[in-house]
Amino acid sequence: MGKYNEAAPILIEHIEQATIILGSQHPKVLRSMHNLADTYRGLEKFDESEVLFRKTLQSRRKLLGENHIETLQTQMKLARLLRLINQYDEALILVRDTAEKQKALLGEEHPTTLIAMQELANLYQHQNKLAKALEIYNHVLTTRIKVLGEAHPDLSKTLLGLITTYLLNNNTADAEKYFKQLTKLAEKKPERFQSDVMTAKTLLTNYYAQHHQPEI
To answer: Per the database entry, which stretches of residues form a coiled coil (predicted)?
Structure first.
């Protein structure tokens, strides 16, 4: 949390000074407010983060419009925070809206759109809507490989999402299949993927232990 502790007072001072000079609704002020809200999230000050994200989102919608890319950035950050604090229903509404607008603005295969789609799959997984989650995860994985290549870091989180969801669905065969794909990525660039490999390995080990099954 060191970098967040350092960033927070700098951002607060910048917001105060910029507000005096530029006004509270200036895009530069709103950008700093967005960054401060994200910093509070990193510091686990979730109440302060939520209040500031909501205030920034309201101002960006008014100033820039609901379809502006910076408005959607704040909307997505708020949705991720809401997922973190288990407010899944509102988070799902925000992420669906963000994904649809980013598709229209950037295209269905744009990396930013795929981030929103991944978050949508994460939310469906948390709500135990596993079929929907798997459909989106698989779409995101296929598209990311096509657009970004087979060794891009973003693939790791999608594979981990697939492994987790297949285990929740008691489908160890597909979970193992995607685990093997993840380990192959780690062989190429271990510094990028090793953490997610260890997380996936722990998930598989715990699943087999809980279900009294030998590991494949």
So the answer is: none
List, for residues 83-132, the tens digit of each pLDDT value. 999 999 999 999 999 999 999 999 999 999 999 999 999 999 999 999 99
How does pLDDT run across 33-53, given as a tens digit for each residue? 999 999 999 999 999 999 999
CA distance 94 to 163: 25
Does a structural domain hold residue 126? no
Residues 174 and 94 in one domain: no
Residue 86 lies in a domain: yes
State if pTM tops 0.90: no
Q: Let me know: does 162 contact 138? Beta carbons within 8 Å.
A: yes
Please give the full DSSP string across 22-58, using - where no structure is assigned: H-TT-HHHHHHHHHHHHHHHHTT-HHHHHHHHHHHHH
